[in-house]
């Protein structure tokens, strides 16, 4: 990483935070306080789910007075912490982000910033006007190896960047879990797939393009395979009742029940029992009655399972992005940066740079000890580095430690909205002034 933010903390008392939304993301970021109690303290929590807020309360010894069912009750109080971590569902980002910023809280806001371009702008405006820091959950910006790609591009190892090819393999059962049965399956309830899943990736491409702005974008994509028409004859509406589930790779029995039977109650099993710890009994009950037990061919999903985005940036730099559900790898991005002097390829683990002149290939990687703290989950350590950087930024009143700050993040979100417009309207969208700083 360019800067070791953990060594940058100089504040003598820990940064005090409120967690709004104590689900998966809220819990992950809160873990930082358990690892580094001298640097961050979770002082309050708001979540309508009793199980979630009580769990966080116990983990962080939060006073009863500081446990809330909803963020609106928190905002009625005078400001009582340094920062807020907003980890609510996608459609519940704008309102709390604006309200907390106006109260003077520094804001860590999960991605996507919001579900409309206007709401994204409103958040940035509120943070700017109040003079508070904003860090958006673009965790990949904090992945040490991915960060190295930018470092190498800026060092000129491939010469002028001519073309960027970037793939997001979502993973077949991850897609079924999150985007067919789960929280991000339906645009009206969350957001479209390119925003929910790939705003990270468009942000990276935008970042790698440097100062060049995107001028034209086109996009295609649809919901493939996970439709009612593809339901096999004889399949039941729920996997527990299905006589042909053994032959289905998307069977909920395989994804959840088999895992918990083998003692693996981590993600995605951990998500499906909203009011209890997962065990064989509660998982079976969730599959019998909840959304995660449904046949993947019989859900109310409407978000794209495969989408491509083509972009042209100033100066003729082109970029091609693909998001696809049907992959073995889960979210291990693959990238190739084609330059005038060489080719950089990233396989999800390490980077190779081939130099056209010397015809030599050089391997690059980067070290992170985040897994010591956050385990192997957490986006390969990037979650740890993001919260680390945010805490350091607040402790030192130094926004430059935040890599996913308001200006660039807003621009890359606007590009996502333009790409989706291109898909919906089946045309090339000229970005014009919309994506200019
Ligand atoms: N940065 C990343 O890579 C990444 C990864 C996954 C999810 N996300 C994003 O993080 C956000 C949270 O996702 P998650 O997986 O933690 O979801 P989750 O469902 O596990 O957690 C969301 C929590 O918000 C709570 N909530 C709902 N309304 C609330 C309110 N009015 N006040 C307070 N809390 C409220 C819910 O009860 C739930 O516990 C989403 O926007 C998601 O897209 C980001």
Automatic annotation (TrEMBL):
One of its GO terms (molecular function) is nucleotide binding. Residues 15-138 form the Gfo/Idh/MocA-like oxidoreductase N-terminal domain. InterPro entries: Gfo/Idh/MocA-like_OxRdtase_C, Gfo/Idh/MocA-like_OxRdtase_N, Gfo/Idh/MocA_Oxidoreductases, NAD(P)-bd_dom_sf. Residues 150-401 form the Gfo/Idh/MocA-like oxidoreductase C-terminal domain. PANTHER family: BILIVERDIN REDUCTASE A (PTHR43377), BINDING ROSSMANN FOLD OXIDOREDUCTASE, PUTATIVE (AFU_ORTHOLOGUE AFUA_4G00560)-RELATED (PTHR43377:SF2). This is Uncharacterized protein LOC114439010 isoform X1. It comes from Parambassis ranga (Indian glassy fish). The gene is LOC114439010.
């Amino acid at each position: 990483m360019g800067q070791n933010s953990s060594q940058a903390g100089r504040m003598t008392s820990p940064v005090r935070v409120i967690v709004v939304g104590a689900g998966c993301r809220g819990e992950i970021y809160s873990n930082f306080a358990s690892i580094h109690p001298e640097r961050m303290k979770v002082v309050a929590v708001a979540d309508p789910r009793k199980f979630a807020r009580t769990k966080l309360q116990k983990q962080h010894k939060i006073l009863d007075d500081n446990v809330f069912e909803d963020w609106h009750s928190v905002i009625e109080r005078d400001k009582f912490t340094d920062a807020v971590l907003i980890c609510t569902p996608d459609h519940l980002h704008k309102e709390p982000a604006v309200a907390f910023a106006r109260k003077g809280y520094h804001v860590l806001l999960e991605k996507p910033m919001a579900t409309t371009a206007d709401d994204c702008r409103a958040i940035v405006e509120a943070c700017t006007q109040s003079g508070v820091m904003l860090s958006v959950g673009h965790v990949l910006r904090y992945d040490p190896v991915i960060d190295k790609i930018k470092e190498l591009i800026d060092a000129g190892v491939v010469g002028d960047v001519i073309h960027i090819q970037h793939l997001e393999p979502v993973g077949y059962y991850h897609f079924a879990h999150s985007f067919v049965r789960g929280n991000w399956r339906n645009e009206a309830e969350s957001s479209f797939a390119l925003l929910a899943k790939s705003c990270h990736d468009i942000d990276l491409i935008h970042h790698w393009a440097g100062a060049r702005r995107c001028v034209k974008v086109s996009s295609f994509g649809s919901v493939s395979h996970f439709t009612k028409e593809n339901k096999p004859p004889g399949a039941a509406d729920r996997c527990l009742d299905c006589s042909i589930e053994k032959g289905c790779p998307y069977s909920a029995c395989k994804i959840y029940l088999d895992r918990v039977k083998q003692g693996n109650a981590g993600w995605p099993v951990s998500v499906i029992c909203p009011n209890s710890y997962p065990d064989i009994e509660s998982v079976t009950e969730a599959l019998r009655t909840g959304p995660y037990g449904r046949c993947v061919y019989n859900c109310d999903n409407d978000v794209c399972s495969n989408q491509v985005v083509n972009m042209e940036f100033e100066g003729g730099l082109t970029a091609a992005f693909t998001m696809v559900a049907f992959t073995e790898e889960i979210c291990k991005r693959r990238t190739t940066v084609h330059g005038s002097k060489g080719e950089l390829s990233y396989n999800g683990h390490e980077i190779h740079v081939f130099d056209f002149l010397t015809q030599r290939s050089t391997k690059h990687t980067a070290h992170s000890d985040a897994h010591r703290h956050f385990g192997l989950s957490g986006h390969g350590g990037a979650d740890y580095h993001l919260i680390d950087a945010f805490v350091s930024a607040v402790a030192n009143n130094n926004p430059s430690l935040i890599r996913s700050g308001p200006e660039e993040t807003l621009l890359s979100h606007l590009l996502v909205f333009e790409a989706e417009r291109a898909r919906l309207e089946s045309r090339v969208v000229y970005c014009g002034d919309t994506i200019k700083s």
